[in-house]
Design a protein that fits this description.
The chain is of the alpha+beta class and 87 residues long. It has one domain. The protein is built from three helices and two strands, in the order αββαα. It has a two-stranded antiparallel ribbon. The longest helix is centred in the last third of the chain and has 15 residues.
Amino acid sequence: MVVHWIDIEDEADLVGDFDVETFPTIVIVVQGQVRFAGPVHPHADTLIRLLRAAALETRAETQSSSFPVEVLAFAERLARRESHGGV
């Protein structure tokens, strides 16, 4: 698992058009597919359950195509940055 803390003001180019309005906002990408994108309650147990469910999710109905294009583009930029060692 790789975790990134991204300051949306300091890294506006990375965030792009993904409009983060509520904090904390979490984006979970598993094997190149967005599994979750949205705000969460800032409780450790909530985050643990969310990560566990996203990691175990394999059903077709959790497809990246169900997320806004801005979220998909952000996840793609993040993956490119990670693959170039820029994290």
